[in-house]
Write a structure and sequence with these properties.
single chain, 298 residues, eight-stranded parallel β-barrel, disordered N terminus
């Protein structure tokens, strides 16, 4: 299933894997964390966070709320590079674990056609921006015994083909399923342009696995890493609680040990999705990453 990738845009990922002992990662932030109302505001605030660039949410450009050239210019003028992209799917409801399981990602039939069209448009934007990686939440993946699994694997294959044709890899967000289930799905799809955006906090928020052990299990498929922290829930079936990096349950020393051993050169993107001082939390996280793992980032 899927097609082999051999496009020039994948050269950086290949270099990271081949030259892992010497290739530094780029440290950036997730654009949506800052809740910016314009490209200029995003660039202004991001430039205070001591990072090299951003993972850019493409849907505001796709819908016409932001202008592509204006966004690229605003970030470039502040010395920020667009490191990768992110897209969201239609009508997701994150209010509860049950609601996101029902509405999230590419699983709902009612929104599939719109989501595929959005992927096609986002692929053109990624190509125009010269990007080679986009991430998104595929949604809760059906178990191997579930008849719906064939539909989801076919849809993932279609989305990966859309982006592959434009030299863009796809990384699935972690959290909704165990690392074993996600790895099994990736092996089933059997394509090197489809991998993992590893988010340690999501493993805690969804109660789907230990972040460090999960990173080690998925290391061979990780294309990008989110720096985010969380505490587990005390109520079964409910969300955990996101925390600023270093204030949650992620064992960052052990986590960076796995990155050092297996994933040098894979970019680290700081994400903060709650709190009222997100820029301050991101700045503190950037400084903490550099203090804890100075040899990992440039």
């Amino acid at each position: 299933m899927g097609s082999a990738w051999a496009r020039p845009a994948f050269a950086r990922y290949r270099a990271c894997i081949t030259d892992a002992p010497t290739t530094p990662a780029r440290l950036g932030l997730c654009s949506w964390s800052l809740r910016a109302r314009s490209p200029e505001q995003l660039a202004e605030v991001a430039s205070t966070c001591e990072v090299r660039g951003v993972q850019l949410h493409l849907d505001p450009i796709r819908t016409g709320d932001w202008d592509l050239e204006q966004t690229r210019d605003a970030l470039g003028q502040r010395g920020l590079t667009i490191l990768s992209a992110m897209m969201t799917t239609r009508d997701e409801d994150y209010s509860t674990l049950e609601s996101i399981a029902r509405t999230g990602g590419i699983r709902p039939d009612a929104t599939w056609d719109e989501n595929l069209d959005a992927a096609r448009a986002n692929a053109e934007i990624a190509l125009a921006l010269g990007l080679d990686l986009i991430t998104f939440h595929a949604g809760f993946l059906p178990e191997r015994s579930d008849p719906e699994r064939a539909t989801i694997t076919r849809r993932l294959d279609q989305i990966a083909d859309v982006f592959n044709a434009r030299g863009v890899r796809v990384a699935l967000e972690t959290g909704q399923e165990s690392p074993e289930e996600l790895l099994a799905l990736l092996e089933e799809l059997d394509r090197d342009d489809l991998g993992v955006n590893f988010d340690p906090a999501n493993m805690i928020l969804y109660a789907s696995g230990d972040p460090v052990a999960s990173l080690e299990a998925l290391a061979g498929r990780v294309m990008q890493i989110h720096i985010k922290d969380a505490d587990p829930t005390s109520t079964p079936g409910a969300w955990g609680v996101e925390r600023p990096m270093g204030e949650g349950n992620v064992d960052w020393e052990a986590f960076f040990g796995v990155v050092q051993a297996h994933l040098r050169g894979v970019d680290l993107l700081i994400e903060r999705e709650s709190g009222e001082n997100r820029a301050g939390d991101i700045l503190a996280a950037a400084r903490r990453v550099r203090a804890m793992a100075p040899s990992l980032v440039s």
